[in-house]
Fold this protein.
Amino acid sequence: MKKILLYTSGILILFWGITHFPPTAITVRDFGDITANNKLIITMEWIVEGLTLLFLGILIIAVTKIETESKLAKTVYFLITGMLFSLAILSLLTRFRIDFLPFKLCPVIFSTSAVLILVGMRLKTKSQVSAT
């Protein structure tokens, strides 16, 4: 169950990162008549967030596949959780006020993924349970 929760978190964040790429051009176009620099800034922001989420999702999955119980693995999970909660708070303070459903989903997805990691970290593996 531990790995299922951790993999689910990684896949959720990975999926959300992938969903950033297709609407980028449409989002930039929806800003209307803005300068070329501003278009590049918006494009860069969307791509950077998508790549960041891809990295976090891949990192969760890779660490889960390699080792879930080491101090390093737990540190990585803890740091990713902090990043996800930070993104959720940022989204609540900024994007959540925008009347566009995907923006409203960001804090929910980030928080859900972080909670899945925290719960997954607390569960014991089968080998730990049978050793007790």
Observations:
- The mean pLDDT is 90.
- The chain has one domain: 2-124.
- The two ends are 18 Å apart (CA to CA).
- Residues 2-124 form one domain.
